[in-house]
Write a structure and sequence with these properties.
Blueprint (H helix, E strand, L loop, with lengths): L9 H10 L1 E4 L3 E7 L7 E6 L6 H18 L7 E7 L8 H14 L7
Parallel strand pairs: 3-4
Antiparallel strand pairs: 1-2, 2-4
Helix pairs in contact: 2-3
Length: 114
């Protein structure tokens, strides 16, 4: 994932938490905020230490990045998102995680209209 598509700074995370909307399913939580002047969506990933060791947390983040990469063309470009992984993600494979993520995006209408 390119650097331009990532949210890294704490103040950007805080802005989305305070001014954005949230939605969750059992595996993932999404916070998102609209940014009209943006030409590509941006994501921030958060996987807490309670979920597993560093290897497991990095694997979850890789799966989420790859899922975003595969759905890149279908996601609205004017959105900043933060994805927080919950405990059940440590037992999930890539396809399950992609399905869970697409469910969140679909429910919140973050896909482009076709």
């Amino acid at each position: 994932m390119k650097k331009a598509y990532r949210i890294k700074k704490n103040n950007e995370f805080q802005y989305i938490f305070k001014h954005g909307k949230s939605f969750a399913n059992r595996q993932l939580v999404i916070y998102y905020a609209e940014k009209a002047e943006q030409e590509h969506f941006r994501i921030g990933l958060s996987v807490g230490k309670k979920i597993g060791n560093a290897v497991k947390r990095n694997q979850i983040k890789r799966y989420l990045r790859q899922a975003f990469h595969e759905m890149e063309a279908d996601i609205k470009p004017t959105v900043d998102m933060i994805i927080i992984a919950r405990q059940p993600t440590k037992n999930m494979g890539f396809h399950e995680m992609k399905k869970s993520l697409s469910h969140l995006l679909y429910k919140q209408r973050l896909f482009k209209n076709k």
